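Protein 1 of 2
SEQ + STRUCT:
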Amino acid sequence: SFAHSRMDMSEDTTDDFAKVLHHVLHPPTSNRRDPRAVRLSAATAALIETVHERRRQGGDGSTDDPLPAELFLCALTALQGTLSSASDAADRGVGGQDVTATQQPLLEIIRLTASFVSSHNATLYVGQFTFLGRTLR
């Protein structure tokens, strides 16, 4: 469970992940107009909102920062959803750029969270590795 995972993470790791989240959500002034940074920040904020909604549905109304594992799973699920959207768009011959613009920030979030998840939630990471590999192919 995520509550158990929260206890397993060291204070340093939690602080490191919080710094990563802060940097993504609040890019340096020099990057605030960069479309990639804007999309990454928006996608991260949307995923955090999704994590909070899932917590509310599960009876945990916590609005604490998400754990790396929560954000990783949420991004992976969203990425999987874009693949079926991409397939549908390809069948219609439209929308390739829109899907790519959505997938890039999700891939970046997965990249940013994967090292935290593999280090501190190895069982979860291994359990999702097949799904991750299939999604990335």
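Protein 2 of 2
SEQ + STRUCT:
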Amino acid sequence: GVQCAEDAVMAYKAGLSGCVLSNHGGRQLDTCRSGIEVLPEVMEALREAGATQEDFAVFVDGGIRRGADIFKAVALGAAGVGVGRPVLYSLASYGEKGIVRMVHMLQDELMMVMRLSGTPDVASITEGHVITRNLSDHIVPLPADNLVNGTYMPLMPAARL
């Protein structure tokens, strides 16, 4: 998954037809921003590089939990979204019926947000429907490891012992 605007532009210039913004579920890149948080800067860099949404599709995989998140991703330029954790939770808890219910819930939530925003169809969703100026407020700083820092004696080179 792509994690920065520069990589998305490189993919576009290499002739690919799209990319997926992802932090791989936070398992490998647990302190990185989710795909939806990276999306605004990626779309801006792609526009500056001459890409259009028709010739380069950007998908968001990460940070999607509700229908409102799908609305935001589409408004910011995503061609589509990946829904990971809600699928896993639904499947693990309720099986196939849980997946069907989860999809219906996302559809219902998306339709409600569209109604409340005055957007009768997906094509009418624009960037003007989303406020992005406080996006950096949602980024969690690197957590301190108090167990290592406060409990164990730090390792020192043999020359300092």
